[in-house]
From TrEMBL:
Residues 280-363 form the TGS domain. InterPro entries: ATPase_YchF/OLA1, Beta-grasp_dom_sf, G_OBG, GTP-bd, P-loop_NTPase, TGS, TGS-like, TGS-like_dom_sf. It comes from the Bacteria. The keyword Metal-binding applies. NCBIfam families: redox-regulated ATPase YchF (TIGR00092). Residues 2-258 form the OBG-type G domain. Keywords: ATP-binding, Magnesium, Metal-binding, Nucleotide-binding. It comes from Exobacillus caeni. ATPase that binds to both the 70S ribosome and the 50S ribosomal subunit in a nucleotide-independent manner. This is Ribosome-binding ATPase YchF.
């Protein structure tokens, strides 16, 4: 399963956030595809549409979909040279598919900052530099292997060599490989290197309780936003401390607490949705009287593969999918009405599933 790693310097609030994630987290028993590991937190994907569908269909059971966050501890300056938990840290990042980078935007005299002052951009660059240096080593090694073959005019090696040179150049300028505008083909060529700075990233600005309602008043957050904008990365503002308190509450209690502090939804929900999107994940629904359920698929998947997520038999025996877009279904008011209006389509094996599709698969057993 795809996972996003939580990364950040010491004392920025990672553990506090990760605790909130596991507290709020889903029962792993309901999600057998998820990893059971103390460093992995399984979260349900908050999705209004699932509850609207439940109201519409009135099923016996409603099941949200879930995915994973991985807590990656131990980055310090010098990690790429093996400082701290250096190499271990880097190998853990290599295994995740996207990065949620937590930065400290709160002041608190009682909590030491590793570099002596709160400076989120310097923090981001400290970590990015370690990742850049690690990638540079990877790329240099690869260049040594490919260069000889490239000189002998081996076509594949030549193509790879060209991409590697481009990547090396940005890394030497201390920039991330993702900042290069590589074509899909070029990306494929270097995919096997699992470069750390190729992974998509979002920034989590951890602010104080007081700044949560007015993050625009927090200058640190503004700086993170500007930095992120240059990379086309998203910024999620949270207060980790409050999130860990929210995560302990349920139902009405939770609602009351959110109202009291004046926010509509937990910051964690925003983070979950942003991380899900960053991983290239999307949701389709099945809506029967027994069960209304959300399913996670990778964007770009075709109908048979998406059916295979429910059961391998669905993929093997796939015939057709009966599909109505969520919006169309809600507008029509019922499945029957949607059919009458011609909004329910029959799609074949080449159909690319869309986020929000409500699907009934037809298959042979
Ligand atoms: P980590 O080293 O990045 O995992 O950081 P921790 O989660 O252990 O947090 C370090 C310290 O900062 C702890 O004492 C937390 O209670 C405190 N902390 C974390 N988030 C916040 C926050 O949003 N506001 C304030 N004031 N303190 C926080």
């Amino acid at each position: 399963a795809l996972t996003t790693g939580i990364v950040g310097l010491p004392n920025v609030g990672k553990s506090t956030l990760f605790n909130a994630i596991t507290q709020a987290g889903a029962e792993s028993a309901n999600y057998p595809f998820c990893t059971i590991d103390p460093n992995v937190g399984i979260v349900e994907v908050p999705d209004e549409r699932l509850y609207k569908l439940t109201e519409l269909v009135n099923p016996k059971k409603t099941v949200p979909t879930a995915f994973e966050f991985t807590d990656i501890a131990g980055i310090v300056k010098g990690a790429s040279k093996g400082e701290g938990l250096g190499n271990k840290f880097l190998s853990h990042i290599r295994q995740v598919d996207a990065i949620s980078h937590v930065v400290r935007c709160f002041e608190d005299e009682n909590i030491t900052h590793v570099s002596g002052k709160v400076d989120p951009i310097e923090d981001i660059e400290t970590i990015n530099l370690e990742l850049v240096l690690a990638d540079l080593e990877t790329v240099d090694k690869r260049i040594q292997r490919v260069e000889k073959m490239a000189k002998q005019k081996d076509k594949a090696s030549l193509a790879e060599f060209e991409v590697l040179k481009k990547v090396k150049e940005v890394l030497e300028a201390e920039k991330s490989a993702r900042s290069l505008d590589l074509t899909e083909d070029e990306k494929k060529i270097i995919h096997g290197l699992h470069l750390l700075t190729m992974k998509p990233v979002l920034y989590v600005a951890n602010v104080s309780e007081d700044d949560l309602l007015d993050p625009a008043g927090n200058e640190y957050v503004q700086r993170v936003r500007e930095y992120a904008a240059e990379e086309n990365a998203e910024v999620i503002v949270i207060c980790a401390k409050i999130e860990s308190e929210i995560a302990e509450l349920d139902g009405e209690e939770k609602k009351a607490f959110l109202e009291e502090i004046g926010i509509e939804e937990p910051g964690l929900d925003k983070l979950i949705r942003a991380a899900y999107k960053l991983l290239g994940l999307a949701t389709y629904f099945t809506a029967g009287v027994q069960e209304v359920r959300a399913w996670t698929f990778r964007q770009g998947m075709k109908a048979p593969q998406a059916a295979g997520i429910i059961h391998t038999d669905f993929e093997r025996g796939f015939i057709r999918a009966e599909i109505v877009a969520y919006e169309d279904l809600m507008e029509a008011g019922s499945m029957a009405a949607a059919k009458e209006k011609g909004k329910v389509r029959l799609e074949g094996k080449d159909y690319v599933v869309q986020d929000g599709d409500v699907i009934h698969f037809r298959f042979n057993v």
